[in-house]
Amino acid sequence: MTPDHCVQEYWDSVATDYDQVFPETLIGRLQRQAVWRELGGAFHEGQRVLELNCGTGIDAVRLAVKGVRVLACDVSPRMIAIATNRAAAADVASSIDFRVLPTEEISALSEEKPFDGAFSNFSGLNCVADHSAVARALAGLLSPGSLALFCVMGRFVPLEIAWFALGGRFNRATARLRNKLAGADFPGRVNIPSVGALARAFQPEFRLESWRGIGVSIPPSSLGAIAAQFPRLTGFLANFDDPVSRIPVLRGWGDCVLLQFRRL
User: Fold this and answer.
1) Helices 77-89/58-65 angle, 10° precision
2) Three-state DSSP state, 121
């Protein structure tokens, strides 16, 4: 069995329960709302955008409801099946074209270009080994001047480091910094590049215009169970996330970071 096939089987196996693991948790909802605010400013009614690693289709449906047409890709047939059902239930199936397609193979969409933008939410690019190759393929699909937004895992999360260090789990506390974070059952490698490394990987086809943190003032997803025990406090802290997540230095402390690139 090839590594790619193992990854596909993994995502198929977790697809049914995936929404309960993160998207429908308190932290998952708060982080996604922050990303949605940025997506809403980037993509507009009538545009056609490409989504990489769409998962169960939550973001694609959100954009489609706003009048954006989406071609949404994912490596997992099971994820795509769930996403298709979600779009039908929201009555936006005609606005979304779902495809079983790994991010590494998006060049197969060359006959369907150009797209008015692209995005990838919540760590899909962290499962990609060669970001430069993805950038080149994506550049061939996007119109010049279009936007590409990528939400990826942050490398430095102080609350996560402190929590696991106090519990004596020093390897886990520093896993992101050492780029050694991996799920217990995930068969692939989780790659956590710095913002600078991603910016360089997407050159010269793209220019990094801005970036911000996602989940700076609230607990990270790794502490989601604890945050759920204190929903009012977590909700209160979320009120500060948007302004804090744009402050230099502090913006790099988020559970995730959201980067906005411009196709040159």
Assistant:
1) 30
2) coil
Residue showing tokens 């609230």: 218
Distances in Å between the Cα of 48 and the Cα atoms of 65, 95, 108, 143, 236 are: 13, 9, 17, 11, 36
CATH code, 33: 3.40.50.150
Range of the domain at 68: 3-263
Q: What is the pLDDT of residues 146-166, one digit of tens each?
A: 999 999 999 999 999 999 999
Q: Mind giving me the DSSP string for 178-226?
A: TT----SS--S------HHHHHHHTTTTEEEEEEEEESSSS--GGGHHH
Domains contained in the chain, number: 1
DSSP 219-253: --GGGHHHHHH-HHHHHHHHTTHHHHTTSTTGGGG
Question: Which residues of the chain fall short of a pLDDT of 70?
Answer: 1-3, 182-184
Element (H, E) at 172: helix 170-173
